[in-house]
Design goal:
By secondary structure, the protein is mostly helical. The chain is about 60% helix and about 0% strand. The protein has 16 helices and no strands. The longest helix has 25 residues. This is HD domain-containing protein. It comes from Solirubrum puertoriconensis.
Length: about 300
């Protein structure tokens, strides 16, 4: 096994800034819109692989999908074609989406913000999705496991496509802190669970049980997935997978930071969900928000015993 290495102190010092944004992005694993049974994260995972398979430049795909993910934090499922289909002028649609992106990227390093703004309206060609894309969207993550202890099943279950897309986007957003090339860090995230397209995820407990058998199984499963890629793309994916094992590479550091953050933020969401109380919606989020029906709504809720009488 590769040995671990300490993270650079200056990179660690900058991590607290994007973490609230990463927490918000994590919800894209659980957000769906009409027209697809897949989460927004799974849809982005499929789009990105289709673009890469068609020969789109890696950096363009990485920045474009990251920009779309950031827009989806505020306007989930919105894109220019949808707005124009509903009668919004093209320039206005661009302005709306740029405003949504700008609200988010204001907290990011200026150079990365500019790159994301430039990439938002890119139109990479889409090819055929490799078969592993659908398989990873169907393959659930293991949940929380430990050797000798009962598995903790968390619901809704995230898929490996959810996780890989989120790690890829996180890696792009963390690339300035680690002085990493965002495209390569993105590809590491997209590819690091190719083996799980056919290999069910047994978690840490199962990995320990499989022991010395695991590397061979993973290698065979990964090779099957790599065989589905165009010859022009496969070397880049193979290089990305190899560099994951070497923490001296800046892209690997951005990837591994993104990976562990996504794993823990997924658990943090379940923790937050379990602690949800009605007053969070009524008071903190003001679910009965201002409008001509607000007073009427509050009277109805109070009469029903769902609000204190005022």
């Amino acid at each position: 096994m590769p040995t671990s290495a300490p993270a650079r102190s200056e990179a660690l010092a900058a991590l607290c800034t994007p973490t609230p944004l990463l927490r918000e992005l994590n919800d894209l694993k659980r957000v769906r819109v009409a027209g697809s049974s897949h989460s927004l994260a799974e849809q982005a995972f499929a789009r990105a692989w289709a673009a890469l398979a068609a020969g789109a430049p890696l950096a363009e795909v990485a920045l474009h999908e990251t920009a779309r993910a950031l827009v989806s934090v505020r306007l989930p499922g919105y894109h220019a074609a949808l707005l124009q289909q509903l009668g919004m002028p093209a320039e206005t649609a661009r302005e709306v989406l740029q405003q949504a992106l700008g609200q988010i990227t204001a907290q990011l390093p200026p150079a990365l913000s500019a790159q994301l703004a430039d990439a938002l309206f890119a139109t990479p060609a889409l090819g055929a999705e490799p078969a592993f894309v659908a398989q990873l969207a169907q393959q659930p993550r293991a949940g929380a496991t430990h050797p000798g202890r009962a598995r903790i099943i968390l619901w809704p279950t995230e898929s490996h496509a959810d996780h890989c897309l989120m790690v890829a986007v996180y890696a792009v957003l963390l690339s300035p802190q680690f002085e990493a090339e965002p495209g390569e860090a993105f590809l590491m995230g997209m590819a690091h669970h190719l083996h799980n397209a056919v290999l069910p995820d047994p978690g840490y407990a199962g990995d320990e049980l499989l022991g010395n058998h695991l590397p061979g199984l993973m290698a065979q499963a990964t090779a099957q997935a790599l065989g589905q890629l165009p010859a022009t793309l496969r070397p880049a994916v193979e290089q990305a997978l190899a560099r994951i094992q070497a923490l001296e590479h800046a892209s690997a550091q951005a990837f591994h930071a993104a990976d562990v953050l996504d794993r823990v933020l997924e658990m943090a969401w379940h923790d937050q969900s379990a602690q949800f109380r009605l007053h969070h919606a009524l008071d903190d989020l003001n679910i009965v928000h201002a409008g001509f029906t607000q007073q009427f709504h509050r009277q109805v809720l109070a009469a029903a015993g769902l609000l204190p009488h005022t």
